[in-house]
C-alpha cells in the first residue's frame, strides 16, 4: 500500500507531502445523500458540542459539511532540521509502527539516541514506535545519499525497508554502487533495529524501490521503477537467478520476490509502466497497482491506455504467475496511489484522475484540476462500486489519495487537497494544502470526513489502520493542528514541508 510518486514520462515526479491532541468536538451530520455516487453533495450540519477534558473541544463547523470524529491519541515529530521526509509507515500485530524516509543533519525522535547523516545527506532512516506513540529506536541505514520509500513488518516483527541509494557512496563493506545512478536498496532489520542484511542492486539501469510487502511465510515482495541509466544502460540483472530485465520505453516497473534471507526468487518487469503500491491477500496473492502509458501487459491480454496515462490493477500468485489484470482510463491523466485488501480479499483502489474516468461502473466526472476516486473490486477483479472524491472548483487539487480498511471492512481514505472538495459530507475548504480523512462503509456509503491543517502547507504521505481501529498517519509539515493538539513548527526553513510527523487518530 502506498504513496505518491508520479510522472510517467521522463524523470519521476516525486510529489511531496500534516499534527495535534486533546479533546475534540464532533460536528453535526450533513443533510446530503451519503449513498455511492460520483458527486455526492449535502449542506453542512450544525456544529457539535465540545469534547470533555481541559476546556473542552470546539464544536464542529456548520455549513461546511459534517465533521468526522477522529481524536488525536498521540503524535511524534522530530521538529526542526534541515530536511526530514517520511514516505511510508507499517503497523504490526502488536500495533507497533515503523516509519521510513530520509533526513539531513541530525534526526532526533523522542528520547532514543539520535542519528547523524553522512556529509550533507539526505540519508535513509527507519524508526520504530510503540502503540502508545513512544519511539523505541531509530536507525540511519548504512548508505549515503538515499531515500526509504517503502516499509513493512514480516510475521516475526522484522522490519523491511525498500528505497534507493544514489551516487555509489555506500558504507560498512557494502559493494560499490553506480557513481551516477539510483540503485535499488532493500534492508531487513530485526525487531530491535539490528540490521540482518542489506541488498544493493547496482546495474546499468536507474532503479528505485517504491513499495514492499511480506506474506505469511515472511517472503518479501518489492516493486519500483527502472529507467535508462547514465551512461545509457537499460538492464537490471539478477545473476543469482539468471534473469535480466529490460527497460521498455522511458520507464518500466519491476516486481520481485525475495526469500526471508534476502535471496532473489523471481523478478519481472512491465514496460511503459510505473508501479506504486502493493498489497497481499489472505491466500498470499499479491495485488499490484500503478499507471502506464501506451501499451503494456502483465501476463494476460495487452492493456492500452485511453488517455495520457491510465491506472492498472494486476493480481499475481506467490510464485509470480499472472492471475488477472485490468486498466481504467479516460481522456485525461490517471495516477494510481494506493491499494488495500479487506477480510474477504476484495480490493480497494485509490487513484487521481483528470477530466473523467471509468473505474468499471461508468464515468466519474472531475470538477477540479485533479480529482480522485476510490473503487472496490472482488477477488477476481470484477467491479463492485466506485465513487469520486470531487473538487468543487476548477482550481482544486487532490493528491496522495491513501487507503486502508478497518476490522469491519470500512474504508478509510486520507490525502492532501487544496481548494474546495466534497468527500460525501459537504464542502471542505482550504487556502493551503491540508490533510483530509474520510470513512466509507463496505458498500461505499459515506460515514464521516474531517480535515486538518493550518495556513501553511501540510501533506499526508502514508496511512495504515492499527488493530484498535486507529488511523496511523504520516506526512510532512511546517505546522499542523490535529484537533487542538500542539502544533509542530519548523524554525530553520521558511514555511513549507520540511519535517515529518506520525500521528494516531482514534474514531
From TrEMBL:
Q: Does the keyword field hold Signal?
A: yes
Signal peptide limits: 1-22
Q: What InterPro entries does the record tag this protein with?
A: 6-blade_b-propeller_TolB-like (IPR011042), Motility_Chemotaxis_Reg (IPR052918)
Q: Does the keyword Signal apply?
A: yes
The ranges of region (Disordered) come to 28-65
Tree of life domain = Bacteria
Record protein name field = Beta-propeller repeat-containing protein
Give the classification, highest ranks: Bacteria, Pseudomonadati, Myxococcota, Polyangia, Polyangiales
Amino acid at each position: 500500500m502506498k504513496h505518491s510518486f508520479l510522472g510517467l514520462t521522463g524523470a519521476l515526479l516525486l510529489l511531496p507531502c500534516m499534527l495535534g491532541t486533546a479533546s475534540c468536538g464532533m460536528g453535526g451530520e450533513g443533510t446530503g445523500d451519503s449513498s455511492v455516487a460520483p458527486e455526492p453533495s449535502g449542506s453542512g450540519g450544525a456544529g457539535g458540542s465540545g469534547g470533555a477534558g481541559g476546556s473542552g473541544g470546539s464544536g464542529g463547523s456548520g455549513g461546511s459539511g459534517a465533521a468526522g470524529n477522529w481524536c488525536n491519541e498521540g503524535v511524534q515529530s522530530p521538529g526542526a532540521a534541515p530536511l526530514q521526509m517520511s514516505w511510508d509507515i507499517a503497523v504490526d500485530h502488536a500495533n507497533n509502527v515503523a516509519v521510513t524516509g530520509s533526513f539531513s543533519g541530525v534526526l532526533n525522535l523522542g528520547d532514543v539516541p539520535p542519528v547523524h547523516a553522512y556529509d550533507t545527506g539526505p540519508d535513509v532512516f527507519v524508526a520504530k514506535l510503540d502503540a502508545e506513540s513512544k519511539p523505541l529506536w531509530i536507525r540511519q541505514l548504512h548508505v549515503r545519499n538515499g531515500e526509504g520509500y517503502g516499509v513493512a513488518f514480516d510475521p516475526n516483527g522484522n522490519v523491511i525497508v525498500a528505497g534507493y541509494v544514489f551516487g555509489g557512496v555506500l558504507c560498512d563493506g557494502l559493494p560499490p554502487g553506480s557513481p551516477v545512478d539510483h540503485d535499488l536498496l532493500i534492508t531487513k532489520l530485526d525487531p530491535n533495529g539490528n540490521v540482518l542484511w542489506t541488498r544493493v542492486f547496482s546495474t546499468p539501469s536507474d532503479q528505485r524501490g517504491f513499495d514492499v510487502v511480506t506474506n505469511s511465510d515472511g517472503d518479501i515482495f518489492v516493486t519500483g521503477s527502472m529507467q535508462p541509466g547514465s551512461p545509457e544502460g537499460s538492464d537490471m540483472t539478477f545473476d543469482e537467478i539468471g534473469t535480466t530485465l529490460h527497460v521498455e520505453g522511458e520507464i518500466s516497473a519491476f516486481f520481485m520476490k525475495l526469500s526471508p534471507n534476502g535471496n532473489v526468487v523471481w523478478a519481472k518487469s512491465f514496460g511503459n509502466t510505473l508501479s506504486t503500491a502493493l498489497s497481499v491477500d489472505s491466500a498470499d496473492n499479491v495485488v499490484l497497482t500503478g499507471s502506464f502509458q501506451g501499451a503494456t501487459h502483465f501476463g494476460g491480454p495487452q492493456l492500452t491506455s485511453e488517455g495520457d496515462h491510465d491506472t492498472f490493477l494486476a493480481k499475481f500468485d506467490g510464485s509470480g504467475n499472472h492471475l488477472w489484470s485490468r486498466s481504467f482510463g479516460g481522456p485525461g491523466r490517471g495516477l494510481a496511489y494506493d491499494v488495500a485488501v479487506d477480510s474477504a480479499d476484495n480490493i480497494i483502489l485509490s487513484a487521481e484522475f483528470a477530466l473523467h474516468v471509468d473505474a468499471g461502473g461508468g464515468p466519474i466526472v472531475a470538477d477540479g484540476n485533479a480529482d480522485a476516486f476510490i473503487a472496490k473490486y472482488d477477488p477476481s477483479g470484477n467491479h463492485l462500486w466506485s465513487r469520486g472524491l470531487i473538487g468543487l472548483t476548477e482550481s482544486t487539487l487532490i493528491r496522495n489519495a491513501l487507503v486502508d480498511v478497518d476490522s469491519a471492512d470500512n474504508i478509510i481514505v486520507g490525502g492532501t487537497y487544496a481548494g474546495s472538495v466534497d468527500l460525501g459530507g459537504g464542502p471542505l475548504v482550504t487556502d493551503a494544502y491540508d490533510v483530509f480523512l474520510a470513512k466509507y462503509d463496505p458498500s461505499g456509503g459515506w460515514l464521516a470526513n474531517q480535515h486538518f491543517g493550518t495556513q501553511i502547507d501540510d501533506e499526508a504521505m502514508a496511512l495504515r489502520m492499527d488493530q484498535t481501529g486507529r488511523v496511523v498517519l504520516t506526512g510532512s509539515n511546517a505546522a499542523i493542528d490535529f484537533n487542538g493538539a500542539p502544533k509542530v513548527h519548523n524554525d530553520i526553513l521558511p514555511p513549507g514541508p520540511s519535517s515529518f510527523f506520525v500521528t494516531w487518530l482514534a474514531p
